[in-house]
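Late entry, written up from scratch paper. The run itself happened at the end of the previous shift, but nothing got recorded in the book at the time, so transcribing now.
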Amino acid sequence: MIYLMRHAEADTNGKRFVGQWDVPLTPRGRAQARRWAQRLSTVAFTAVFSSDLSRAADTAAILGGDRAVKTVASLREIQLGRWEGRLMSDVQHRDPQAWEERGRRIDGFRPPGGESFADLQDRVVPAFEHLIETVSDPVLIVSHAGVNRVLLCHLLGMPLTNLFRLGQDVGALNLIDRQRRKTVVAAVNLNPFRPEEACG
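Output as recorded:
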């Protein structure tokens, strides 16, 4: 089983385009990660991977316990160029044409100096496939909402235009079952603060 997680809550200080802007976990985020560490304490991960951004690496370190975390730059969140760190409302107000274009073609739109979700998928899928070929299950991978969504779209055969139909709450867990001839998405967006979604 592959445990694909979105990092826990980070300190974004408002509804912003975060992307590769490196922000720390909040106290609630650390509590989310500790909750998952408790829930998954019986899972003997053979490897723990994460994005090299601190919000993902710190989440992985809490979950991994004494297991070393290998950070992977290719698992970073989408690069948002000049939109990095800006409030969404500010972008919408100051650049309404780009905002509208993003809404029309979410898969191919690139903010100035940034990546599109298609670019992100081209970066992430080969890195993910390489990682999982090198280790046996169970494995933990901690990354980001955009990264997880484009991976899940790839695994489910979904067009990227539908990526926001896949929930990815902060601290959410997705389960990917590697069977003999196929990979099955077994669960999406499990949340550590919903008791009915205990896992492990």
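The first helix runs from residue 27 to 39.
(Scratch paper discarded after transcription.)
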